[in-house]
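Subject: sequence -> structure tokens, single chain

Hey, anyone have a minute? Need the predicted structure for the following. Not urgent.
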Amino acid sequence: MKQSAGAFLERAGEAQARQILLARAADQCRSGETIFSELADETGLAVEEIMLAMGSQGKQEALEMFLASCRTVTEARGTPEFLRLGKEAVTLVRKTSVNMESL
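Reply:
Had a minute. Here:
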């Protein structure tokens, strides 16, 4: 791998820490304790990473949490278009999933 043992262990530790943060964030979203954007700020992870972690464990739950985040952003910023686009994205994801399952 052309790296020192220390560098290897540092990277392995960072990867493990990231997985622990993702699992914790997904659990908090699932339980309704917080929303994606708050977790992203708290953990330093991208919202998309957290959503993917949740999506691998419960797609519908992840979509509902995404919509909840969209509602929160819409309320905070007064941008109803943001929520409309979020709903449109969820509809497209659900349609795509149904089409993929029928193949």
